[in-house]
Write a structure and sequence with these properties.
The protein is α/β, with parallel strands linked by helices. Helices cover about 30% and strands about 30% of the residues. A hairpin with a 2-residue loop joins strand 3 and strand 4. The model has no long low-confidence stretch (mean pLDDT about 85).
Amino acid sequence: MNTPLKIVVTGPVGAGKSTLIRTLAKGGYVDTDARATEAIGKATTTVAMDHAVMDVGGTTLHVFGTPGQERFDYMWEILAEGALGTVLLARADRPGDLPKARQIFEFILSQSEVPYVIGVTHLDAEEAWAPEEIALFLRADPTLAVGFDPRDPKDAIRPFVRLLDALDGKR
């Protein structure tokens, strides 16, 4: 029997959460993007959540993406409830965002100790940090850091495959 799993994708603004979910969504997705009212480096922002159902190796995932802005942080707790795993996204080319990523990561894990993966995006940028360096900054296990491109369906699945491997020992 294929029991669907709830997974939370979280991270700072612009890390690639919405892009990742849209890339892998089967049969559509739900987003709550609105026009950004402050300078955040992009035209729209997630104000509540993103959601999609996806299939990873025969396992159905209900994936919920959190907003990255702190003013919507009340959604982090709501979306983390009942999650069986977390994918934290961080941009390799924005070390200034890593303290925010650590804050979000620590909050989500404080809600429930669940398996996690650190997904690292923008590795093709000049002066990008290595996934292992980002994991160490986040005080996370560097073996659980995965570099990937959230726009490429074949690559975007990698963090979920790694997370399912970690979950196999917990189910």
